[in-house]
Amino acid sequence: MILKFFDRCPQFFRFALIGVLNTLVHGGVLTALVELAHVGVVQSNMVAFAVSNIFSYLMNAVLTFRTVPSVRSYLKFFSASLIALGLNLLISWGMAELGFHYLQGFLVVIVLVPAISFLAIKLWVFSSKNPI
């Protein structure tokens, strides 16, 4: 049933939906580690990032780009994720330096970063098709 739903969705919508699910995975792992395992917030966020990044990669490989996951493409995906993080921080910093409210910077981030990430992942990470 889930696969049928994803079959009807355009590629960017699938990417965006997986991004929302990925945020829930990150939040769930973070909360579980902090609240249940009493792990520090920074360490919990690092683990949550790793788990959610792997989740995002696998879901996007299979459901969005219909490719067989591989270590090589995951390393590219991980690099793209770090670049997206850097872009997020750069935009946030730049908007603050220009005197914009932090929420205006956040709005720019949530519009630009996913679009740029999608293009980078589509054109660089999954450019050589290894279809499922």
What is the CA-atom radius of gyration, in angstroms?
A: 16 Å
Q: What is the multimeric organization of the chains shown?
A: single chain
Mean pLDDT: 93
Our count of helices gives 5
Strand content: under 5%
Q: From the helix content, strand content and strand pairing, which structural class follows?
A: mainly alpha
Low-confidence stretches: none
Give the proportion of residues in helices. Answer: over 70%
Major sheet description: none
What's the β-strand tally?
0
State the end-to-end CA separation.
18 Å
How would the global form be characterised? globular
Domain module tally: 1
What's the structural blueprint in terms of helices and strands?
Layout: H1 2-7, H2 11-36, H3 41-64, H4 71-97, H5 102-125
Helix pairs in contact: 2-3, 4-5
